[in-house]
From TrEMBL, chain A:
The lineage of its organism: Bacteria, Pseudomonadati, Bacteroidota, Flavobacteriia, Flavobacteriales. The keyword Oxidoreductase applies. Its cofactor is [3Fe-4S] cluster; [2Fe-2S] cluster; [4Fe-4S] cluster. Keywords: 2Fe-2S, 4Fe-4S, Iron, Iron-sulfur, Metal-binding, Oxidoreductase. The keyword Cell membrane does not apply. This is Succinate dehydrogenase/fumarate reductase iron-sulfur subunit. It comes from Euzebyella saccharophila. It comes from the Bacteria. InterPro entries: 2Fe-2S_ferredoxin-like_sf, 2Fe2S_fd_BS, 4Fe4S_Fe-S-bd, Beta-grasp_dom_sf, Helical_ferredxn, SDH/FRD_Iron-Sulfur, Succ_DH/fum_Rdtase_Fe-S, Succ_DH/fum_Rdtase_N.
Amino acid sequence: MSNMNLTLKIWRQKDSKSKGKMVDYKVSDISEHMSFLEMMDVLNEQLINKGEDPVAFDHDCREGICGMCSMFINGEAHGPDRGVTTCQLHMRMFKDGDTITIEPFRAKAFPVMKDLVVDRSSFDRIQHAGGYISVNTSGNTQDANALPIAKEAADKAMDAATCIGCGACVATCKNASAMLFVGAKVSQYALLPQGQVEATERVQNMVKQMDLEGFGNCTNTGACEVECPKGISLETIARMNREYLTASIKG
Amino acid sequence: MAVLDSKVPKGPLKDKWTNHKNHINLVNPANKRLIDVIVVGTGLAGGSASATLAELGYNVKAFCYQDSPRRAHSIAAQGGINAAKNYQGDGDSTYRLFYDTVKGGDYRSREANVYRLAEVSANIIDQCVAQGVPFARDYGGLLDNRSFGGVLVSRTFYAKGQTGQQLLLGAYSAMNRQIARGKIEMFNRHEMLDVVKIDGKARGIIARNLVTGEIERHSAHAVVIASGGYGNVFFLSTNAMGSNVSAGWKIHKKGAFFANPCYTQIHPTCIPRSGDYQSKLTLMSESLRNDGRIWVPKNLEDVKAIREGRKKPTDLSEEERDYYLERRYPAFGNLVPRDVASRAAKERCDAGYGVNATGEAVYLDFASAITRYGKEQAKIQNISNPSASKIYDLGKAIVEAKYGNLFQMYEKIVDENPYETPMMIYPAVHYTMGGVWVDYNLMTTVPGLYCIGEANFSDHGANRLGASALMQGLADGYFVLPYTIGDYLSGDIRTGRISTEGPEFEEAEKEVKERLSFFVNNKGGHSVDYYHKKLGNIMWEKCGMSRNAQGLKEAMAEIKELREDFWKNVSVPGKMDELNPELEKAGRVADFLELGELFAKDALAREESCGGHFREESVELDGEQKGEAKRNDEDFAFVSAWEYTGEPADAVLHKEELEFNDIELKQRSYK
């Protein structure tokens, strides 16, 4: 298959205080085997060689696990493929002559820092509010096998724990809600016996922080689940709601 | 040599750590509040150390270049974590884990450190379960294990193919608890650009805020470097794009010795490069070699036909295939250790048998595993005379259950279905065993400056076993450093806050700023990546899977020349006082350009083959082992610790002789 020539419409914004705008770029000779970020590398090399400012974007592991990459491509978080992050998206998903729109993840709680780079520290602050089990690293906890955990519960906890904290759920949601992200963490602990002791405070504190950060409400459209690169299920939101209700009754 | 004191405690191996802990100085809880510790890096080692130090009461300042500590590259580790729990009752013990690790490292690691690692391994699992890490379990609700990397017991704990992620999120959660308590001050999107020494002791760092570009001074009573490995000196590796040697290299230039830089692990099962635009390589878990058979065509005509698309691999009959690992190593076959498997692949590809356009790929074939599992299932399910397609379907289901996520990942990247056509794989740089030299307390040759995790050299010798990196990171961070650092800090309880106003901070900050300013003002002709790729190419060709004296000498000269060109002609767009990823890269590549030369020098000095370091001049000349790596215990059973004196080529070698009292040195054989 011959290589592609593409038009890119990219959000450029100098810093958090400046106004941004869409700018058009051309790239040529793009191989279908490139990853989307490698195509961005080609563009940046081209810009540097012309003495222009390259496009800033977040990325690190480039194998779909660190959660750092975060582009909104043709109206979809992490682009048109399913179950992948932007770094795993390949150019074979596009055709010669395509115009591709590339924007940052947009949400009130994810302010743009530069170009396609956004500030997701709100996610960290939600975790500070309760995303942990209070156990010291003494090394003298009980033996790991002293407390059996049903395989089904452990597997479900693992499914929830695979969230990479990329924020695609927020960027996709029309309300910019972080319920899938928070639900995943709450679910992981709710499904494990170790998480029970602090369950009440955890869900209350995490939800409170989520609201303080300015994330929107959940209206059950399910878009987050579709765009989640790790397949986190809507069930986690339902579980969080149950946990929250239980906690409210307990007070 | 007097300069290098490993401080290994006296006494029997198994009592060393306990006795040491019983006798070192402690800092009382009220005094811990008066002491600040800086931790650079938030992977398994740095994250766990930050959390534990904060829990103990120290004021921790933690730094990472990512936007959150949760994104450190430990997150990408797939397979698992070893621990001598003996839950399977298969005869595992602390001693066996110790023995396997020393042997796997080809007898080039420090015995006492490795024994301690094995000793605390069991605590790691207890700790992680208590934190809510969802390890895989069996139907009885107990923890499951898998076997890994050719050892004889099942001691690897895992969380699907995402063990590193779950362990890191565990350490991150422990950090979050301390951040919430105000005991860890977290500096995301910050990069350490130098260490500051006052009166010979490490007393702080200079860091750049990567968002605003501001240069900041941070003081502390001790500094801990946990910045990971330097595999990206090869440009292409399985490391994250931002993984770098800068923290380790900066402290090296300020007096910390750098040990065994040439010990690199080149992992045999990675997805091959597809073109010049390639930015990184993706690992496919070692577990695939349990069922996959590795081969290339026997005849060069078939290689040509495959490359030109006239033939498919499945067109070749059994007789037309060369299962070269099974041929060369009948006893271990496809399960030889990583270093042996990697070199064998390179040997075939160098001989012209590589099966893709770049000539750098071999097949990993699951067809016979599918048939084997299919027949087994037919028998279990009482299906008599199953058809070939029935066998295929049954077998495919088993392979899918075991490796489904890896097959899917492969298909996403390569766009070929590995159930129908063999996977293509090729070795890639994956881990660096070498690193900053540390003593038994994990302190470098600079007082108050510590180095933990992959960034140090201590536990894996010349080759690391699978599932041992996660173990070391967490052992260092949770269970070793927090104790040993107290011994040093007990001398600092009356020191008080370290001021950042002194001339040492002034000087270090000035140097950092000058360098950054050079980069943005030097309007040269080439991008940073241009130089990084060239460096990677030299490293891969001359310091890669097999090395010889001539190539290494050439590498040293070429890297020096490239470095000089870099400092004349590099071009970095943008400004210092803004978010500027190119400027970040420039600093990292500048350090790689120095490390690379020391790497080659170290490889040149080590005139033996050991673990991942293969010297073409040091091979067995006859007998059954003919052509295999030849270790030289008489002349090279030492750690090479290099002292910086101004130019990488002028580094001075210090030797830490390795003593083996509890283990017998043997030549590895996989025939």
